[in-house]
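User: Fold this; tokens only.

Assistant: Input:
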Amino acid sequence: MTEMQAGIFRFSVKNVQDEIISRFRELGFLVPIDWQGLFGIDPRMDHPEGIGVAIGTPPAGIMYNKNKVPKDRIPKRWEDCYDPYFKGRLAVDVRPIDMLAISGGYGKEWTLDYARKLAANNPRWMRGQVAASLLVAAGELLIVCPAARVSWYRQARQKPDFPVGWVFPEGPIVARNSFLLSPMKGAPNFNAAVLLTGWIGSKGVAYLDIGTESLFHPETKLGTEVKRLNRKIKVLSWDEVAQTEQKMQEILKVWGFPRASK
């Protein structure tokens, strides 16, 4: 971002993270584009201001060790994560982005109460779910909750014997709009960035196969799987995405993490 402010663009298109969409907008790097008119992209994948295309709707769920967790203890509900059986043997990511996906399905108060109950179950606080999933695979921990499906899928698809399983808990499948691809205004290859983003959004998402591609794209594996489950889908709205930083701070406060004074 600092380089771009100085006119140095190493990338013509970027994945703008949820927390800093507003900052990129303030700096003037995001340009409204008619993605549906130009490329026929599903409007549910577009940012409402046309500043990018969300090529992913990462669903949240639960990862568990298939060898260590008995069949009758495999989590089926979100509430199972604070079952005393898993006390001290669950991992929780300190970047609570997947908690926001839950809030999109269950509301703010339910989510904050859920955060309190998770904290009371003595979790292993971790940053990064790949590391957490490897501890689950090794049997040191039993579950990751809430978990990003992409962190599980990228390993499970390469290792048929990967000992970590995935669960979509009962109730609606919760996800958030993310992986916002945005051409950068001022970049030397801006037009090429628009074409690339439009191609990925209209045709290329199906080829990504990363476990978190858009649920709204008609040809993705994830979208096909979710359709087969025949469950309601609750996706965090773009208005709520704009409040990502504030909402995460509310959850971190419930968890008791200190905040810097400056």
